[in-house]
Structure formats: C-alpha cells, structure tokens
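Field log, afternoon session.

UNIT: design team B
ACTIVITY: writing a sequence onto a fixed backbone
BACKBONE:
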C-alpha cells in the first residue's frame, strides 16, 4: 500500500506490503524509518505554544463509529412509512424527495429542518410543522442508531487508543497552553477516555445536578496548593473539548431560561440508545447551510475554534476529518492567514481528483507552503497508527490497569 508524506515542501512516497499489515513489528519498523516517515521533523510542531486537534468521524471508527458514506441511505423504513400515508399532506412528497435524494445525510437533515421552519414561520401551519418535526426526530434517531456509538458499546474494552491519545497530548510541559480538542463527533469517546484515566476536562458546561452550557468555563483554570503558604500550581493534566455540532448528551431545556437553553445529561456505560429522548436531543449534523450552525450555542463553539487558530506558535492537527463541512473549512482557511499556524493533516486515503476541493487545494499548496504538512494513506492516516507512532509525545500517566496490578501484588 502506498502512503505519501509532504513535509517542508517535499513529498516522500512510502510503500508498505499489504501482507504485513497485521505484523506489529513490521509496522513499528516502518514508522521508525526516518526515510519513510520523517518523525524527527514533526516533533517540534507538537511543542508549539498552542496545540489544537480537529478530530472527525475517523477517530471514532475504533469504538464502532461509522463514517458517513455518500452512497448510503438508511431511511428506507421512514420513506416507506411516508409513502403509506392514506391522505398525505403537501409536505410529505417533499420529505420523500429529500430522503430519497443522493444528497449527503447532512443535507437531507438540513432540508427537512428548512421545511419545518417554513411551515412553522411562513405558512403558520403548526400542525404540519409538528408532524415534520416528528419526522426530523425519527431521521435523527436513525442517524444515531446507525452512525453514533454509545458508551455501552465501547467503554469497557474499546477505548485504549483514545486513552493513549489523551495521555500523550497532556504530557507537554505545563508552561505551554493546554491542548484543545475540537470535534464535530456526537459520541462521548474523548470524555469517556478522560474519565477512565483520571484526566480533568472541560466541555463548556457548568454545574453538578443541573449542568448547563456556559462557554465562559472554557477560560477557567484549576490550581492546587500543597499548603496555605505556597502559591497555587496550575493543573496541567487538563483538556478543553469543544463539541462543534452538539452531542448525544446535550438536550434542549427551555426551563433553564438563559441565552442557550442547553443542558447536559448523564449517559452512563449502561445507557441504551432507546432510552434517549430524541425530541430534545441537540445533535444537528447539518453542514451545508452555514446559517444554521451559527445559531447558539454553536456560534460560541465555532468562535472559540476560530480564535484558537489566531494564537502564536500554533499547531492544528487534523485527524479523521472529511473536509466537507463548510463552517470548519472556512475557519481553517481563515486560520491560514496566521503566519504562525502549522497545519498537520492526516488523510486516510490518497488525495486525488475525487477528494474534496478544499483538501485538494491544501495538497497543492503544501509543496510551496511549509506550514502545511500532509500525511496520506491508510497507514499514516489511521487514528490508531497516528496515536501509537506519529504523535511524538510520551505517555504521562501510568496506565490504571498496571497501577492496580502493582498495588494488588504489594498487598499480598
């Protein structure tokens, strides 16, 4: 299999035998070979003052997540339900058209949502609007059931790569800015990973029994003091996690009565998908209408993402992202106006004529703009391999299993 790495304006083509893909030793040797993977040139960018990650759906494959295939249409049952209505209203044919189209799933949701708003605001037909909203909820439920893993599916035995990822990125010197994870993913893999290894994180919510969204919490710092005479020391093992498109743990709550009306609910490792109320869940995989995701609270999250890319000595590492989200692409494009921003892109496939236009443009620019580094191919674009071999940082926290086993042995 072919992999390509473009760094400092030069492209390295590296071949790896398909038959050795499951050979851990051969795989390790491949990544240790500087002529094939110039890891030494990569290390300095991970030590920049600010380190940011954009983690797309490809980072959830290891926990059972599915990337969205433009050729898939999981709505056959819902389409059949609409076609079977004995006296269909005017909007029904439109919904069928949306669901049967070749559009990406995100665009289908967007069109259904626009139809709902049209009947609610323009036609003032609340009954039809309510019915359309119910079909939007059904389509979101189908989306979650097919594409979004729940903690019950992965917390016990599939989080090791996320744990190692978090472990590595918090190992930087405490004088540097804390790393930030920006993700359009709806699952809780990064949150669960932090909790399993004891790393504190901030996801923009405040409170204990009633956790409500407050973006000011992203600026909070936590300090510890050994005794009253000492100056507090900032906790460095801390992450900010920005869920750009919402989360399965977010719910609309009008009762909160603040600017955002968003609360966070607990989804444990025993919670099942059928226990979730989709009528209030705040996941909107709508990527084609820029106006929609600019509503609160999404505008606050995107504003934080944009601001993070303006900082000096800055690195943005992109993993598992499809480059089809207009909002995110715009922010990356604007971020490149910052001469101090380095972009490290991991693409699971080789970039070619069928790739998204923005990704092709970045590929073309990488040969003359040293700020753009691109890893292409199923080895150097795979989240597991990236975490194991391509993030040049040491693990900081002793794995809990090893610690527990040591304590058990000592207590005998």
């Amino acid at each position: 299999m072919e992999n390509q790495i473009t760094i400092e304006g030069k492209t390295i083509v590296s071949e790896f035998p398909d038959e050795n893909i499951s050979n851990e030793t051969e795989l390790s040797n491949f990544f240790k070979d500087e002529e094939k993977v110039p890891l030494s040139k990569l290390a300095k960018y991970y030590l920049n003052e600010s380190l940011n990650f954009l983690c797309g759906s490809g980072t959830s494959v290891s926990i059972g997540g599915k990337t969205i295939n433009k050729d898939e249409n999981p709505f056959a049952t819902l389409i059949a339900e609409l076609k079977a209505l004995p006296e269909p209203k005017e909007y029904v044919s439109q919904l069928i058209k949306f669901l049967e189209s070749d559009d990406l799933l995100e665009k289908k949701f967007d069109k259904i949502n626009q139809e709902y708003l049209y009947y609610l605001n323009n036609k003032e037909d609340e009954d039809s609007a309510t019915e359309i909203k119910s079909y939007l909820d059904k389509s979101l439920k189908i989306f979650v059931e097919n594409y979004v893993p729940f903690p019950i599916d992965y917390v016990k035995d599939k989080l090791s790569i996320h744990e190692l990822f978090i472990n590595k990125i918090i190992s930087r010197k405490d004088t540097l800015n804390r790393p930030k994870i920006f993700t359009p993913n709806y699952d809780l893999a990064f949150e669960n990973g932090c909790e399993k290894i004891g790393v504190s994180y901030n996801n923009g919510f405040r409170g204990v029994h009633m956790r409500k969204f407050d973006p000011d919490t992203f600026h909070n710092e936590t300090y510890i003091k050994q005794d009253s005479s000492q100056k507090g020391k900032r906790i460095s093992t801390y992450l900010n996690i920005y869920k750009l498109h919402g989360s399965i743990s977010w719910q609309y709550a009008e009762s909160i009565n603040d600017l955002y009306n968003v609360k966070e609910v607990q989804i444990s490792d025993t919670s099942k998908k059928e226990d979730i109320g989709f009528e209030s869940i705040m996941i909107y995989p709508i990527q084609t209408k820029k106006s929609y995701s600019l509503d609160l609270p999404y505008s606050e999250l995107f504003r934080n993402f944009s601001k993070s890319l303006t900082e000096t000595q800055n690195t943005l590492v992109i993993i598992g992202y499809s480059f089809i989200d207009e909002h995110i692409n715009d922010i990356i494009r604007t971020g490149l106006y910052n001469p101090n921003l380095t972009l490290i892109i991991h693409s699971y496939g080789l970039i070619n004529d069928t790739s998204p236009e923005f990704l092709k443009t970045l590929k073309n620019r990488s040969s003359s703009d040293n700020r753009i580094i691109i890893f292409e191919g199923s080895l150097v674009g795979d989240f597991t391999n990236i975490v194991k071999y391509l993030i040049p940082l040491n693990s900081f926290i002793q794995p809990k299993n090893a610690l527990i086993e040591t304590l058990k042995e000592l207590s005998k």
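LOG NOTE: Residues 285-293 have pLDDT under 50 and may be disordered.
NEXT ACTIVITY: expression trials, pending approval
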